[in-house]
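Researcher: Checking consistency across runs. Here is Cellulase family glycosylhydrolase again:
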Amino acid sequence: MRFGVNYTPTRGWFHHWLDFDPDDIRADLDSIAALGLDHIRVFPLWPLFQPNRTLIRPRAVEQLVALVDAAGERGLDVSVDGLQGHLSSFDFVPSWTTTWHRRNLFTDPDVTEAQAEYLAALAGALADRPHFLGMTVGNEINQFSGAPHPDPDRIGPGQAEGWLRRMLDACEEAAPGRAHLHASYDAAWYDGSHPFTPAHSARLGAMTAVHSWVFNGTAQRHGPAGAATEHHAAYLVELSKAWAADPDRPVWLQEVGAPAPHIAPGQAAAFTRATLVNALDCPGVWGVTWWCSHDVDRALADFPELEYGLGLLTNDRRVKPAGEEVARFVREHPGTAAPEPRRTALVLDAGDEEEAPLRAVCEPGGPYFEAWMRLAAGGARPAAVLAQRADDPGHLAARGITEVLTIDQVV
């Protein structure tokens, strides 16, 4: 079991690449390592690393390698996100894809060729570093493909799959054998019109990444300490397994945090522990990476209010209650015994298995979501199984499922 954090630099947030300071980074990494964590996820800003379609800045790549080396010196492995993409409500896309040079991020041949070269350059520069875990194609880059983005790059599911395969192949060719994957925000699981699908998340790349944010209607509907709020991360982990072709495919809880005011500061520690306990009761979890390491400096303007206080540590590197809870949990967690299989599965009908046009039943307030959470609140340990596989004894046996329930039976 791996425990880590998404690294948000204390000085300048992700704009720190413009004023790269190894001493500040080392101090940040020391404060992360002191929590007992074993890995970080880092975010090069795409426009700063590739400001022109045919220019990948060597100095920027060297700075990324230096950060990874500094983390390794502190016993921290590093996963690198490539196409940033989108972070904390801000979009970071290079000028050669916008306005006068407006081109589709997923289908324009010049853009996709440049993206593949960029990902390969980062992966290749880190391929010989023992503390390099692998590449994530980008942080929730699926949000560029449809509403509610104000200027979406429209594509269909087939185009999304083709783009993902090309980007993942570029990473694998440059750094063979590392854990290369992609990550989507939860429209992939909850929006039947979204071109990035559950099947993409659960079948492409080395493992499945899920991002759990309870401000998506869960906390508003069920409250900060409601069973659904405290089980949301576990729900996404189990939901992803319904689409996985490999019953043993690992799932990475790659982002999860305690956003105020949905989770008040005084409730953050309790929410953190409950989320960790419930998520790690799911078989097959590779690890948990909390969002985020340090609070955003309030000298920086225009972030949504909830973004400023998500850190496990303050902007001056003091440990917050949620950080103390994570550190305590890491000390106490044995990291060896795997959870027992989840024997009871709730049948999910999301329509066609590949495109899941009915996946809105899975969103907060949807009939599947609410039935699954009713089981969890009652003390059950529900799994999820697609309707197409609910009568497949081989599939059920491979996952350890011995009882199958329908929504009607639960309600």
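Researcher: Does this match what you'd expect to see?
Model: One thing to look at in this run: The mean pLDDT is 97.
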